[in-house]
From TrEMBL:
GO cellular component, one term: extracellular space
The protein, known as: Interferon kappa
Family statement drawn from the similarity comment of this UniProt entry: Belongs to the alpha/beta interferon family.
Subcellular compartments: Secreted
Alphabetically ordered keywords of this record: Antiviral defense, Cytokine, Disulfide bond, Secreted
A Pfam family annotated for this UniProt entry: Interferon
Superkingdom classification of source: Eukaryota
C-alpha cells in the first residue's frame, strides 16, 4: 500500500481542485494547526456517520479486529513533531483508502468527496508546518545535538510503521472481501474509530 497519495491517479478531480483552491486561499498559522486538525477530523467523523443510517445486521458476522496501534500515544511527553508525523501518516493512508475506485456502497458521493477534500487539505497543511520545522532544525542543528530528540525520532518511525501496518490490514481486508458492501461498512466504522482516536493528537498539539 502506497505511503504517499498519488493525487493525479487516485483523487477525484473536483475534490482535488477544491482542496488545492482552499489550500491556496488560506494562509495557515502553524500555531493554530491543532484547531484546523480538530475541525477537519470532526467534519470527517460527522460525514462518516452520515454515510449510513445504521450498521447492517447482516454484516455483523464479518467484523474483524484491525488492532489500531494505540501505543503511539503511550509515551509520556510526545514531541509535537512526532504527533504531526503520525497525523500525516494517518491522513495519507486514510486518503488512499477513500480514493479507491472500488466502492460497492450506498454512500453519498458528495460525502466521499468531502472526506477526500478534508484529508487532502490536512496533508497540505501538515506538509507546510513540517517543512517549516525542518528548516528551523537545519539552522539550529537540534537533531544532532539532542539525544532525547533522536530517541524520540526512533519512536516516531516505529509508530508510523505500525500505522502503515494497521492500514495495510484494512486494505487487505477489503481485497479479501472483494470490496463488498459489508466490507466497506466495516471499514467505515473502523476508520471512524481511528479518527476519534486521532482527535487526541490535536488536543496534545494544543497543550504542548
Amino acid at each position: 500500500m502506497s505511503t504517499k497519495p498519488d493525487v493525479f491517479r487516485t483523487c477525484v478531480w473536483p475534490a482535488c481542485l477544491v482542496g488545492l483552491l482552499i489550500t491556496g486561499i488560506l494562509s495557515l498559522d502553524c500555531n493554530l494547526l491543532h484547531f484546523h486538525l480538530r475541525k477537519v477530523t470532526w467534519q470527517n467523523l460527522r460525514l462518516l456517520s452520515s454515510t449510513s443510517s445504521s450498521f447492517p445486521v447482516e454484516c455483523l458476522q464479518e467484523t474483524t479486529a484491525f488492532e489500531l496501534p494505540q501505543e503511539i500515544l503511550s509515551h509520556t511527553q510526545p514531541v509535537k513533531r512526532y504527533i504531526k508525523e503520525a497525523f500525516y501518516e494517518m491522513s495519507i493512508q486514510a486518503f488512499n483508502i477513500f480514493s479507491q475506485h472500488t466502492f460497492k456502497t450506498t454512500w453519498e458521493k458528495d460525502y466521499l468527496k468531502q472526506i477526500q477534500i478534508g484529508l487532502y487539505q490536512q496533508l497540505q497543511y501538515l506538509e507546510q508546518c513540517l517543512e517549516e520545522e525542518e528548516k528551523e532544525k537545519e539552522d539550529s542543528k537540534e537533531m544532532e545535538q539532542n539525544g532525547i530528540n533522536w530517541s524520540g525520532a526512533m519512536v516516531s518511525q516505529l509508530s508510523n510503521l505500525e500505522l502503515r501496518r494497521y492500514f495495510n490490514r484494512i486494505d487487505n481486508f477489503l481485497k479479501e472481501k472483494k470490496y463488498s458492501h459489508c466490507a466497506w461498512e466495516i471499514i467505515r466504522v473502523e476508520i471512524r474509530r481511528c479518527f476519534y482516536y486521532f482527535q487526541k493528537f490535536a488536543v496534545l498539539l494544543r497543550k504542548k
